[in-house]
Amino acid sequence: MANSQIESGAPITLQELYPSSPFFMEARSLRVTGLLKGYSVETAIGVIEDGEKSLKINTQHLRDVSFRVGSVYQFIGELHIEPNNEARTGRNVDGIDINLYRKTIELLRRFLEVEEDNRNMVE
Amino acid sequence: MTRDIHRLTPSPTEANCFSLGAISWVSRVETVGTIVSRDMAEKFLKFSVDDGTGCVTCIMWLNQLTSPYFHRFDSSTILLHSRVARRQARDIRIGAVARVRGRVGLYRGGMQITATNVVIERDPNAEILHWLECVRLSRSCYRIQS
């Protein structure tokens, strides 16, 4: 029962995935959410969109997830600059309040940064 | 949040009691996150929960029928505990979002949760609400000097 070695997927919006972003790193574990715009059963590659941004997701390792174009999905996995991002988990999140989600991850990130700064000051 | 769970430090005087800083001693925690691993053993189910701030290992014991710990209970209670644990274990699958409550502890240098209750959250907004609640509690409760 050793401590979990799995890296946590940092929740981000697709808008935050640009080349100079701190999240834009090969093999970085991320949690992404978006509307499924397309899915290929042959290749198991899906494309999710959020606003004007889109992202390809390799779902070959996922089990017990049915993909329906037009539904909102959330994936946790590793970013690959080339060719496709690999998802370790995926779920349908139809009904998610996407505006609240965006605001909350921003709030959470700021909160965690302040906590980290305070912790470093104490140490 | 899981990040806080991994930063808990053991109490020098109270067994199975932990603190984040010099205030707010805890022995039980609740986390809400995505199940990212699942490993079934003979006597327990080990799984990991990712809440976006970190991953934490959780253990759900399934040995109620044979463990000496449960000898204090009558047989119908033991059977009930066993059935509930096994039902909850069946629902724990990779990709699902779960609310895990249990006792926090240190094992081989890492924090883990011995789960007493696991509920699968089907509301897609459950994690969002949990994050907001954690921020609120941190500001209003856990950071208040006792």
From TrEMBL, chain A:
<dbReference type="GO" id="GO:0042162">
    <property type="term" value="F:telomeric DNA binding"/>
</dbReference>
<dbReference type="GO" id="GO:0003697">
    <property type="term" value="F:single-stranded DNA binding"/>
</dbReference>
<dbReference type="GO" id="GO:1990879">
    <property type="term" value="C:CST complex"/>
</dbReference>
<dbReference type="InterPro" id="IPR029146">
    <property type="entry name" value="Ten1_animal_plant"/>
</dbReference>
<protein>
    <recommendedName>
        <fullName>CST complex subunit TEN1</fullName>
    </recommendedName>
</protein>
<dbReference type="GO" id="GO:0032211">
    <property type="term" value="P:negative regulation of telomere maintenance via telomerase"/>
</dbReference>
<dbReference type="Pfam" id="PF15490">
    <property type="entry name" value="Ten1_2"/>
</dbReference>
<dbReference type="GO" id="GO:0010521">
    <property type="term" value="F:telomerase inhibitor activity"/>
</dbReference>
<dbReference type="InterPro" id="IPR012340">
    <property type="entry name" value="NA-bd_OB-fold"/>
</dbReference>
Automatic annotation (TrEMBL), chain B:
<keyword id="KW-0158">Chromosome</keyword>
<dbReference type="Pfam" id="PF01336">
    <property type="entry name" value="tRNA_anti-codon"/>
</dbReference>
<dbReference type="InterPro" id="IPR004365">
    <property type="entry name" value="NA-bd_OB_tRNA"/>
</dbReference>
<keyword id="KW-0238">DNA-binding</keyword>
<dbReference type="InterPro" id="IPR040260">
    <property type="entry name" value="RFA2-like"/>
</dbReference>
<protein>
    <recommendedName>
        <fullName>CST complex subunit STN1</fullName>
    </recommendedName>
</protein>
<keyword id="KW-0539">Nucleus</keyword>
<dbReference type="InterPro" id="IPR012340">
    <property type="entry name" value="NA-bd_OB-fold"/>
</dbReference>
<keyword id="KW-0779">Telomere</keyword>
<feature type="domain" description="OB">
    <location>
        <begin position="31"/>
        <end position="119"/>
    </location>
</feature>
